[in-house]
Design brief:
alpha/beta, Metallo-beta-lactamase, Chain A, seven-stranded mixed sheet, 5 helices, RibonucZ/Hydroxyglut_hydro, transmembrane helix, MBL_superfamily_lactonases, membrane, hydrolase activity
Length: 201
């Protein structure tokens, strides 16, 4: 009984202290929440101000999309055996031009313009594909008064021939590429990945 009374007395003695600690922790939690909320509000305010500033001074940015050829796939199951065998599909080959105050960039150069001169296009991959061009990249650039030699930057989604066909038009452009990809593109292993340096060198 004495032990029980001692414990009860100790509980009474520590109860105000524990209550104070709980109260302090509760206050600390609310304070942290308020600081966090204030920080988020400050960040949001900064973003709104930046957006307002940008809308007050819009960047002269233009994006052009060009038709850079078509690829007829005569059997789509070549990509995945689960797809319908013998079903045809035609892929569009697009190129993009970005005009920015700090420079002009061409993204991908499509199939070679030389395919325009070949009626019916060219078969590739043992007849699995047919490659064709209905209008040249050079003529589409001319339509918007762009000389290929004036383009500042060139970049490729990847280095297969259907994306690099007209790379030689842009000899004055700086090529934007990762070092690892560049090293592979000119290595003896390039052929394993269906890369051909003649397409982009």
């Amino acid at each position: 009984m004495k032990l029980h009374d001692n414990i009860k007395n100790q509980q009474k003695h520590y109860l105000p202290i524990l209550s104070s600690i709980k109260y302090f922790l509760l206050l600390l939690t609310f304070a942290s929440f308020n600081i966090s909320a204030s920080t988020e509000q400050f960040k949001l305010k900064e973003l709104i101000e930046a957006e307002h500033e940008n809308s007050s001074h819009p960047i002269d940015l233009k994006l052009y999309v060009f038709d850079c050829g078509q690829i007829l796939v005569r059997d789509i199951s070549i990509f995945n055996p689960a797809l319908t065998q013998g079903e045809h599909i035609t892929f569009s080959d697009a190129c993009y031009l970005i005009k920015h105050p700090e420079g002009t960039l061409i993204w991908d150069t499509g199939l070679s313009d030389s395919l325009l001169d070949i009626p019916g296009g060219v078969d590739a991959g043992g007849g699995a594909f047919n490659l064709s061009v209905s209008k040249t990249l050079k003529s589409q650039l001319a339509e918007i008064d762009i000389d290929p030699s004036s383009i500042d930057y060139i970049a490729f989604s990847h280095l297969h021939f259907d994306h690099t066909g007209n790379a030689s038009y842009f000899l004055n452009a700086t090529w934007l590429i990762q070092e690892v990809e560049y090293n592979l593109a000119f290595s003896p292993e390039a052929e394993q990945f269906f890369f051909n340096p003649a397409d982009y060198d």
